[in-house]
Structures are given as structure tokens and as C-alpha cells.
């Protein structure tokens, strides 16, 4: 048995479908996760501890348990709570909830990084707390937290592979089935690794460009 | 009491029996003061005496623990109901202190915005002003503090004195009825202090009501209508500059002024200099 790249070209249709699905899950999970993370962090920032307490529990549970178990609970355990989700919906929701917990911690750190005096100044001008988040805190902290956000986004691209255990036909699942029918594990798994690596490179490059854009005002500090 | 009925003599700021505690530390211990329209009040005192805390309480940047603070006749931060007091909403706090401007020791400009945007943004966000109108007003305010030519500069491109003047322009743009200055020149290099004090002098001569926490005794002596000396959380002396700086015999005040004087004298004339 020799290294045979024809395995990949013969199955290009399935591999492409798997890759498209992986990207879809990844993008949807990340976008939803960012939204959840931002909302959780903003609520923690602006409300009292009684409202924040359940959110703290959510963050602790999502960060403290394996993603695999979370997916099992949502998909296989969901029906016991009247939550009958398709594998795809359960998978994206799971990814978003998992990512959201980490994203919220990143946003929280970002909010703290803006000096309180700037917020006092804005409050004295009668600007609402939410508008301060939007116009004073977010634009400044984005420069600081972008690398961490990009890092988490890359991690989520790899976590999409876990969705194969709840029968979502994403790339890892496709590769496994090709591998198990053709026994061409080396070719398929190498291909799989290269795809995830490509995701990393794409996110890193995008984050670099974004960092330069949102950090324009900081570059001026250095002259 | 009779004079309180005419609106012109109603104080802009009326502080009655205000206490402020941080945990078990008592920082303000029963402060009473009034600031009337167009008056300049300078608040002096040793560091840790509570003077900044008092100013921050008047702006409700700190919640005072006890007593009442009225801004143009309205109770700030609380509502009184059956013997107790209840903290009002942020929106209500904003409404009552809408006409209070605050200038910070550390400027607290927003570094991701140009000088112009720093002044214009609050006009848009809290006064609902249209973009062009806000920009026009912001430019006029920057010109007033002598920075019309630096409107596009970011805070990091401005000197400390220029940043503080932007801070003043930002507060002035909201058309406050009173301006509170919390040690506005303490973070500045000595050669930049003058330009900020000049802007404040101009403001005072235009009739702006001002309360200034400061270590600049020269400014206090020349500009203030009232000087208050705060020590250990109480107003230990208060009166005209002449009364406080020359006549008042409070030993703590005399010691404070003596320390200040010794720190700032570097040449005493030929007789003094000749002594070894």
C-alpha cells in the first residue's frame, strides 16, 4: 500500500461538502459565540451581581467541562428536557455556547483594560453606560483583545471536528468514513490536518490586518 | 432665608452636612458649603484632606454617605422618602447634574478620538446634536481654549497642557452652569501650568461659576472669591483670599501655607541668600 493522493481526488465531492459544512458550522458558531460572549460580558459589567450570578455559573460550567460532553448533553440529553434538536442545530448551538463562555472572559478582560477615568469623563457628559461600552470601551479594547479573539476562533475551528460524534457530516466525519472504507488513513488525515492548518493561517492573517486597522490611533502614540 | 426666594441668589451648589466614608475611614465629616452664580471657589488643603473627594461627591462620581447636595435646587443622587433616602437611577443623576462640567487631574480624554471628536462626541450622544452642528460647536470650543489648529490631533500627539485644554473645551461644550476642576494642573510639567490657568482665568472673568481644587495658591489668591481650607474632612477655614491667606489664624492652615511657601521659595533676595 503506497501513498496515493488519488484517494482525495476520487472523493473530492464528499470532501468539498464536508469542508463547506465545517466552515459553515465554524463561522456560525463563532459569530453566535462572539454575540453571546459580548452580551454576557456587557451584562456582567453593567448589572448587579444577582443578575450576573447565573451568567458566572454558565461561564464556569462551559469552561470547566469537555466540549464533547457538552455536545452529548445537548444532543442526546436535550430530548429529556423537551429539546429535540437536529444534529446540525445542536452542534452549532453547542459550539456557540462553548465559545461564548471563553469569548465573554476575553471581553471582560478587555472592558477592565480601559482606564476608569475615561468612563467617569463620559458619565459626566451624560453618556449612557451602554453608549460608553460602544463608543469608548469597545473601540479601544478591540486592539488589545483581537489576538485572544483570533486564538479562540482558531480553537473553535478545530472543535468543529467533535460534531462528528453527533453525526454531523462535517469534514472530520467525511474523512473518517473515507478512511475506514479505503484504509487510506495517511492521505486523508494529512489532508484534514492541512485544512485545519489553513484555517489557522487565514484567521491569523485576517486578525493582523484588522489589528492594524482598529489600532491606528495607537500607532500614533509611538511617534 | 428671605434672600433664598429670589432665583438669582439661590446657590448653584448647596452642600449640607455631607459625610463620606470609605469603609471605616471617614473622609468627609460634615461639610456645609454654598457656591453662588459666577463665584469662583478654590478648595485647598493637604493631600488626603478630602478636597478631591468633596468635589467628586458634588459631581456624584462618589456617592456621599450622609447629608444632602443640591444642584440648582435639586437633590443630587437620591430621593428622600419617609425618613430614608433612595439612590435614584443613573438617568436621573444625569438629569440633575446635566449642567455640571468636570475637569479631571488626568484629563481623561478618549485616546482613540481626535481632539475634535473628544469634544463633539458627547454633544452627539447625550445632546442628540447632528454631526455637523456638533463639529461646529466643538471647533468653536477648541478655538476658545486656543487649540483650533490642533483639532485633528489625537491626545497622544498633544502636550499635557494642550490635553487639559481639550478637557476643558469638552466640558464647556455642554454649556455647564458650573465647572468643577479637580487639581487640573497637578499632572502637568511646570512650564505647561500657565496655559491651563490662563484658560481658567478667562473663564472666571466671563462669569463662569467655578469650584477648583488646587495647589496653585497664586491662582487662588488672584481669582477666587472664596477660598476654603479643608483639613481632616472638615472645612477648617473659609473666606476671601485675603482672610484665608493673611488673617485666619488656624494653626493647621498657617502650617500648610508655611510648608507651601517654603517649598516654592528658591530665592530670598541678597540678605536671605547671603546666610549660609
Can you put this structure into words, describing what you see?
The complex is a heterodimer of chains A (223) and B (276). Chain A is mostly helical and 223 residues long. Chain A has one domain (6-222): MetI-like fold. Chain A is 81% helix and 0% strand. Chain A contains ten helices and no strands. Chain B has two domains: 10-98 and 193-262, 3-Layer(aba) Sandwich (Rossmann fold); 100-176, no CATH class. In chain B, the strands form three sheets. In chain B, strands 8-9-10-3-11-12 form a six-stranded mixed sheet, sandwiched between helices. Chain B has a four-stranded antiparallel sheet with strand order 2-1-4-5, with helices on one face. In chain B, strand 1 (13-22) and strand 2 form a beta hairpin. The radius of gyration of chain B is 20 Å and the shape is globular. Classes of the chains: A mainly alpha (223), B alpha/beta (276). Chain A binds chain B through residues 115, 117-118, 120-129, 131, 135-136, 139-140, 217-218, 220-221, 223, and chain B through 59, 61, 90-91, 94, 97-98, 100-102, 104, 106, 108-113, 121-122, 125-127, 154, 156-157, 167, 170-171, 174.
CATH second-level architecture of chain A: Orthogonal Bundle
**Helix segment count of chain A?**
10
CATH topology of chain A: MetI-like fold
User: What is the straight-line distance between the termini of chain A?
Assistant: 62 Å
List unreliable stretches of 5+ residues of chain A. none
Amino acid at each position: 500500500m503506497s501513498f496515493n493522493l488519488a484517494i482525495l481526488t476520487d472523493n473530492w465531492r464528499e470532501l468539498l461538502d464536508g469542508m463547506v459544512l465545517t466552515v459553515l458550522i465554524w463561522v456560525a458558531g463563532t459569530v453566535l459565540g462572539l454575540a453571546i460572549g459580548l452580551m454576557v460580558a456587557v451584562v456582567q459589567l453593567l448589572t448587579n451581581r444577582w443578575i450576573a450570578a447565573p451568567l458566572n455559573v454558565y461561564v464556569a460550567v462551559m469552561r470547566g467541562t469537555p466540549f464533547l460532553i457538552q455536545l452529548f448533553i445537548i444532543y442526546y440529553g436535550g430530548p429529556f428536557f423537551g429539546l429535540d434538536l437536529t444534529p446540525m442545530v445542536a452542534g452549532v448551538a453547542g459550539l456557540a455556547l462553548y465559545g461564548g463562555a471563553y469569548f465573554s472572559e476575553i471581553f471582560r478582560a478587555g472592558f477592565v483594560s480601559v482606564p476608569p477615568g475615561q468612563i467617569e469623563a463620559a458619565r459626566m457628559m451624560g453618556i449612557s453606560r451602554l453608549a460608553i461600552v460602544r463608543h469608548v470601551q469597545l473601540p479601544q479594547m478591540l486592539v488589545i483583545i483581537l489576538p485572544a479573539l483570533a486564538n479562540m476562533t482558531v480553537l473553535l475551528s478545530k472543535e468543529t471536528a467533535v460534531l462528528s460524534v453527533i453525526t454531523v457530516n462535517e469534514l472530520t466525519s467525511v474523512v473518517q468514513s473515507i478512511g475506514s472504507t479505503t484504509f487510506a488513513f495517511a492521505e486523508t488525515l494529512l489532508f484534514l490536518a492541512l485544512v485545519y492548518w489553513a484555517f489557522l493561517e487565514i484567521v491569523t492573517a485576517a486578525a493582523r490586518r484588522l489589528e492594524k486597522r482598529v489600532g491606528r490611533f495607537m500607532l500614533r502614540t509611538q511617534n | 432665608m428671605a434672600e433664598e426666594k429670589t432665583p438669582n441668589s439661590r446657590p448653584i451648589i448647596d452642600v449640607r452636612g455631607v459625610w463620606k466614608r470609605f469603609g471605616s475611614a471617614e473622609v468627609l465629616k460634615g461639610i456645609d458649603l454654598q457656591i453662588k452664580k459666577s463665584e469662583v471657589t478654590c478648595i485647598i488643603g493637604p493631600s488626603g484632606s478630602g478636597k478631591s473627594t468633596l468635589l467628586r461627591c458634588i459631581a456624584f462620581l462618589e456617592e456621599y454617605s450622609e447629608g444632602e447636595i443640591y444642584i440648582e435646587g435639586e437633590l443630587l443622587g437620591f430621593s428622600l422618602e419617609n425618613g430614608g433616602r433612595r439612590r435614584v437611577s443613573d438617568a436621573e443623576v444625569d438629569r440633575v447634574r446635566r449642567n455640571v462640567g468636570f475637569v479631571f487631574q488626568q484629563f481623561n480624554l478618549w485616546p482613540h478620538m481626535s481632539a475634535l471628536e473628544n469634544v463633539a462626541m458627547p454633544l452627539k450622544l447625550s445632546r442628540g446634536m447632528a454631526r455637523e452642528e456638533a463639529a461646529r460647536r466643538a471647533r468653536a470650543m477648541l478655538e476658545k481654549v486656543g487649540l483650533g489648529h490642533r483639532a485633528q490631533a489625537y491626545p497622544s500627539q498633544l502636550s499635557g497642557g494642550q490635553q487639559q485644554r481639550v478637557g476643558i473645551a469638552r466640558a464647556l461644550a455642554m454649556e455647564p452652569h458650573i465647572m468643577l476642576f479637580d487639581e487640573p494642573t497637578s499632572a502637568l510639567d511646570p512650564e505647561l501650568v500657565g496655559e491651563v490657568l490662563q484658560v481658567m482665568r478667562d473663564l472666571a472673568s466671563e462669569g463662569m461659576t467655578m469650584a477648583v481644587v488646587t495647589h496653585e495658591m497664586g491662582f487662588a489668591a488672584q481669582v477666587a472669591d472664596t477660598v476654603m481650607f479643608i483639613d481632616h474632612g472638615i472645612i477648617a477655614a473659609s473666606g476671601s483670599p485675603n482672610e484665608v491667606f493673611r488673617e485666619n489664624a488656624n494653626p493647621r492652615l498657617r502650617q500648610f501655607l508655611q510648608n507651601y511657601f517654603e517649598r516654592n521659595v528658591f530665592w530670598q533676595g541678597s540678605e536671605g541668600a547671603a546666610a549660609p
